[in-house]
Design brief:
By secondary structure, the chain is of the alpha+beta class. The chain contains one helix and six strands. The strands form two sheets. A four-stranded antiparallel β-sheet has the order 3-4-5-6. Strands 1-2 form a two-stranded antiparallel ribbon.
């Protein structure tokens, strides 16, 4: 697994806040057996997502409901660009 480099994450959008999460000891997992750019970690009941090639950049934080919607839409091809 990749080393963790992020310590705390805060996200605020239009009055909507997610909790500060300590990601310094997160167990980051890649979807393609360690070779992919996207990594996720399950932390304190939330799902964190980051770019594995740039782990110092901010992570996206999802609630379980948001993560489920994202995964279902991805499986349905909602984000396909081809």
């Amino acid at each position: 697994m990749a080393e963790s480099t992020t310590t705390t994450t805060t996200q605020r959008f239009s009055g909507w806040e997610k909790p500060d999460l300590d990601l310094s000891n997160a167990d980051w997992r890649s979807g393609t057996q360690g070779a992919g750019d996207v990594q996720i970690a399950f932390v304190e009941g939330f799902i964190a997502m980051r770019h594995g090639g740039r782990p110092e950049n901010p992570s996206l934080i999802f609630t379980p409901a948001e993560w489920r919607a994202f995964v279902l839409n991805a499986r349905d091809g909602e984000f396909d660009l081809t």
